[in-house]
UniProtKB/TrEMBL annotation:
This is Uncharacterized protein. It comes from the Bacteria. It comes from Marinilabilia salmonicolor.
Amino acid sequence: MGVFVFQHDKVSDQKQDKKQILFSLCLWIGTTYLSLI
């Protein structure tokens, strides 16, 4: 959740933010998935 707040802070380059959020989301889903196995 903190990542989203941090990314929202720098609205100046939104395209980079979207890529960063997507990456963080994928990473979080990946780690959650691995811990569930």
